[in-house]
Amino acid sequence: MSRDIECDLLVVGSGAAGLATAITAKKRGLDVVVIEKEPVFGGTTALSGGVLWIPLGPHGRKQNPADTREAVRSYMMQETGAFYDEAAVAAFLDNGPKMVEFFERETAMKFIPTMYPDYHPDMPGGASIGRSILAEPYDIRGLGKDMARLKLPLKTITFIGMMFNSSNADLKHFFQVTKSLTSFLYVAKRLANHLKEMALYRRAINVTSGNALAARLAQSALSLGIPILTSSPAREIIMDQGRAVGARIASAEGDYRITARQGVVLACGGFPQDIQRIAKAYPHLQRGGEHLSPTPLGNTGDGTRMAEALGGVVDIRFKDAAAWMPVSKVPYGNGEFGVFPHLLDRYKPGIIGVLRSGKRFTNESNSYHDVGAALTRACEGQKDTAMWLICDKATMGKYGLGYAKPAPMPLGGLIRNGYLIKGDTLAELAKNAGIDPAGLEATVRNYNVGAVKGQDPAFGRGRTAFNRYLADPENKPNPCVAPIQSGPYYAVKVVMGDLGTFDGIKTSVVGEVLKRDGTAIAGLYAVGNDRASIMGGNYPGAGITHGPNMTFGYITAHHIADKAGVPA
Q: Do residues 466 and 118 make contact, with C-beta atoms less than 8 angstroms apart?
């Protein structure tokens, strides 16, 4: 029995970019089908922070009315360097605010402002507030029977399945739970609600961050009648007279075809799990180092391979081919492990990062991408690309370290399984971690000279608004700097990971997949991380993936609808 499907537009992938494209196209009157390789929808989006960088958007204009288009252009020109694309930047700045207004007006998508500064707010055109927005928390019971198909958040950054926003307002209560009655009551209420949800539904119902973004977009798509077909990987693009007109789809019941009159949009999440491609693209892998990506295992570069098979171009051009994320390997037992992204601990006072030599190499309170890039370069010529985050007993009890939670949570299990390294002295810690003892002792001694006064003359921690944003405002005079003083001491080994790829398929501004000669493959488009990043391999601010990805999905959908002759 044939299961072949006909539609106007086929979107391959169910992350934010794919769903934004599908919803916009549906609202323009096109018949849209979304397919997803995995048995759950949401892609990398569902594991992410759910932040969008949308300069001059409706929320940001209220926070920072003095921001200007010229300031944003100047900042992006500085950040993207040789890869600055005036036409793409203009399209992004023109359409980003329109995209936000459209989704808030027409769908279940709601955003809230954040206090995030740009990652380099001291650079020309940088802003200390007003460019990053966040998906509003969501009760996933709104998905109805499809609730079980929403991808779960990343296990390592939840607490018994409970999710957190990366904002001081939320997390500060958990850090202060043993010191403040207000925080204790806040945490107790959240835990009680969460445990009730787990008992009734076996998962968190009130979701935040990227899980909320993915859920809101999925609910919007499904309510419009857009099918999201999970466990449905695309095998190849179907061509007819030089035009993409659908795809061959695999399923448990057998292969079938989806024909798409107006074309196919690739939104497969880039290639962070494509072992062969990243081995060529990532310098730390080229020299034999380890790489652990917390992105979905299904993001194996399907979109890039299908585009290349038709003459599309996927060059590795950027100095940094991915959004680098320092990560640690969390043993779960029975040979299984999780990947913990170090999103918060590096900013906290009393935590430093050192190389195997025991020496610091960068400002630990810079963005994850900047720290990752610095680590890659600091380890050039070495097989192992790794650092160790170091802290003392007091800091461990106050903030935790990596997957190890602050007091009163126990540490014994993580010490026994090797995740957390302990030493009564710095020399013992260094020996247990494989770090040079003399180097570590000298580093801590020199660091403490300034740290006792809240200073970091070596790397300037706390200098920028972004350094301070995720630090500890209660730590005076510098929220990022405190000495490392009394044992026992702790360390966690950190290696390179990523949040997704930056290099990708070469496209026109409107998303047409281009051949080497610059001509478009008719009917074939790419959005999201399948498309080469507008940021040129840099990371200017929180949400520079979702913001441009949803915006260009919106642009691509309108272009396809316009070509189809659908009235605006």
A: yes
